[in-house]
Write a sequence for this structure.
């Protein structure tokens, strides 16, 4: 059989697809670079030509997931039938839907990514996601302020603050996942729901909206995220 | 001369005092464990009995600085002549004063601590500071809500959010220090002042206070912090 020559982009995408499948099936720790190259049919040298390490592969994978999520959420951020508040609520609703659809994979990814020894990796992944999302949120806040739907003194700085605040969910989600592992799903779901509700109120207040305007949580979301299999 | 036997606490404190002086004089990178034990007159084995590494020493030093700062700021947090808003403003004023008094040392410490390769160290130092400060802030928010001076739905969670938001100053301070190093003190001071002003407004809004109530910045602070030598 003749050797198939593929472009570097196609090879990278194949490696990412394969890694995603194996990480999600077996977990990150239980997947080796050897497992991945065996499945894809590449040499170790060829693998390291694309990715410096297994960590670099996970980082690229997370960036791709962030890009894909952003592509799904973009229409909500630009929906001409909605004002800024409607768009923010549509963004949260869309994000919840994605979180439930991808729950089993996300739970496993978060479990790896939120570990103390993966702090540097988490930080890089967060930076990638932040760079992608920040301009869209700042734009939304700018337009919302111009339209009088909300009120921030500095759209860029306030967009950064909203994104900074969401990092509280690194510890909170980790705690909920641990509780859920111990079978305490109800307590975990209640705790996560409540923290999401308070995050929504914090956003309301930062944007000068009445408490309860931005719906960061909906009944049943946390339970569905923690249980969906 | 007879060998002087000192208690482990006194030895640890001596090592911390010496390390603090050397780190502040020469910088963290330019100080070795050998430098420190030579000055204190201890063997390497004895040093590692107290601290597992130079990093562990810096972590202990940061925890001590946080404790000392907290001890200085505690009276403001408990001043019976002030309401919750007065206490928060006194806390920021006291913190600014400490920042200017210790500016040369703090600038050097931040320069080390905010480097990407020291992220894990920064995180541990921040956790130590957070554990120390969180209960005091939560208490202040609880009393302030009871007295009607401010209004938060959950003092613990909102205290966590205020502390989470302040982490924006990791990047912002690093940027200001870099600009100042390049001689652009005026631009750096203006940028830092403005970000502190916006942080103050964010706190106002989270606590349901009119914009401008909490004074996180005062004219001249950032310039003094960046220039004090």
């Amino acid at each position: 059989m003749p050797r198939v020559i593929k472009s570097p982009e196609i090879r990278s995408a194949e490696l990412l697809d394969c890694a995603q499948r194996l990480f999600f099936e077996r977990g990150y720790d239980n997947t080796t670079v050897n497992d991945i190259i065996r499945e894809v049919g590449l040499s170790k040298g060829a693998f390291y030509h694309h990715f410096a390490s297994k960590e670099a592969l996970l980082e690229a994978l997370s960036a791709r997931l962030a890009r894909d999520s952003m592509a799904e959420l973009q229409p909500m951020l630009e929906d001409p039938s909605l004002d800024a508040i409607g768009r923010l609520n549509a963004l949260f609703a869309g994000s919840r839907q994605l979180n439930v659809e991808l729950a089993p994979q996300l739970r496993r990814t978060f479990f790896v990514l939120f570990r103390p020894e993966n702090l540097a990796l988490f930080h890089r992944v967060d930076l990638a996601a932040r760079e992608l999302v920040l301009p869209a949120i700042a734009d939304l806040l700018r337009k919302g302020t111009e339209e009088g739907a909300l009120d921030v003194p500095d759209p860029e700085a306030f967009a950064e603050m909203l994104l900074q605040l969401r990092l509280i969910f690194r510890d909170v989600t980790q705690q909920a996942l641990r509780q859920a592992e111990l079978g305490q799903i109800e307590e975990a779901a209640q705790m996560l729901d409540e923290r999401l509700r308070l995050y929504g109120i914090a956003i309301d207040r930062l944007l000068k909206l009445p408490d309860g305007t931005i719906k960061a949580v909906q009944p049943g979301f946390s339970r569905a995220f923690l249980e969906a299999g």
